[in-house]
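Hello everyone,

My group is preparing for a crystallization screen and wants a predicted model to guide construct design. The compound we'll soak is zinc ion. Before spending weeks at the bench, it would help to have a computed complex in hand. I've included the protein sequence and the ligand's SMILES below. Output in structure-token form would be ideal because that's what our pipeline reads.
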Amino acid sequence: MRLSNGEVLLHWPLDIHVLTQGWYYNDGSLHQAVDLRTQIDNMYIRPVYAAEDGTVDQTQDWDGHTRTGMQSYGNMVRIRHADYKSKTLQTRYAHLSSYCVKYGQRVKEGEIIGYSGVTGNVFGAHLHFEVILGGKRTNPLVWLDSNFTTASGQVFTYRAGEHAVQQPEQAASGAQTAQNGTGKLQVITVGPVSQGDADAVFAVCQSRGLTDAGLYKSEWV
Ligand SMILES: [Zn+2]
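Reply:
Good plan to model first. Here are the tokens for the complex, ready for your pipeline.
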């Protein structure tokens, strides 16, 4: 969506916001996209949503075997959004099991455009998501809100010169006031619980990186 200051805040393309690969692959090489986890238990087919209003400006059907070039995207959809600062803004969704839009179709932000899958050059199920500004791929995370976690537990940091969505003052404080009235992080204290339950909660928070990020603290562990 467009914020009142003209900035773009994109809608997450999946309900699950767990990064399995970031702008750089875990080995340090350049990915120029993010990969989002789709697999939980045996299910990896999940609805994929348009990140913003726009027009489908490219679709691709995977031939079922080629894993190089454009075919490495597998079944793929690209959407062109309204320009950002006079530059073309597009988002790409790859490795889909299927898509349910066609070239030239207008879509709304949050509308289902297809379903995640394992087509193209993939080693495991995930959604490959790109944000393309002026024909160049830019870090998707700087167009999305910070409601995500990383599978590897690495904390995302901006790199020098990266675009970051600046939320207008009014919208930011309005959202915070709606949540807790103070504009500060809310502290929730839970207790008393058994040591076993406390250990189990701590283990979950640790596995999600919440303890590293300082978002979860325990008095006991
Ligand atoms: Zn990828």
